[in-house]
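Figure caption, in words: inputs first, then the predicted bound structure.
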Amino acid sequence: MRVIITENFKALSLYAAQQIAMAIRRKPNLVLGLATGRTPIGTYEELVKMHREEGLDFSKVVTFNLDEYHGLKPTDPSSYNYFMWEHLFKHININPENVYIPDGTIPVTGIREYCLWYENRINFFGGIDLQLLGIGNTGHIGFNDPGSSLASDTRLKVLSLKTKKQNGPDFGGADKVPDCAITMGIGTIMQAKTIILLASGSKKARILARALEEPVTSLVPASILQMHPWVKIVADEEAASKLRWKNHYRRVEEVRKRIGYEEVYVK
Ligand code: PGA
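Bound structure (2-phosphoglycolic acid present):
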């Protein structure tokens, strides 16, 4: 696990976008796992800029989103489908057939089958090469709130009240946030070949420290990333402020830079 500490949100966004762009240039048909929320917005802005200014080509890229609220249509402005088209897809040359976002309109009776189909689609493309993640105030990744099985696959989850509160502003109040979502499981996320988790702002400092520097527990779902063979945590100064090993992480990056050591994971 590498921890990259950036000066601010802008530098975090640029770093994440550069990592994604590098992966796409190495593998034009990259299978890219995408996240929603406030944190990745800056990364998507940078990717759009790279597409416009440097011709970054998304025509063969396949994307899978982590999650979607249950009960929302893709056209609902609060849906993650809408979010993704607004912030990224409509500004780049992605093939709409290569975009996968869980469908929030599937009736509960069909969800199990639908989730198996979603997992099968990921496997059909050879698995996710690079998964982008945020971290929730509860420590969730995707919508896997505390108590989620660390081996779970895609399924319907009931959202915690803390998560509803966090996302309340998108709906005009926590009570208006849907109770359930379809989310990739923690097991699904762990199968991604490489992972980048973004954390920004002082509100994430404590949960990030718990996830990275305390024992793995389903009560802090992001802590499972300690078990992943290739993960980069990209945190800005505020989000990194409570990391006890902060100076060590910085030193690791300095030494690697000095000796010019950077692995190539996406072939
Ligand atoms: P945020 O959400 O980026 O809006 O902080 C992250 C998350 O809940 O996963």
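Residues 37-39, 134-136, 140 surround 2-phosphoglycolic acid (CB under 6 Å).
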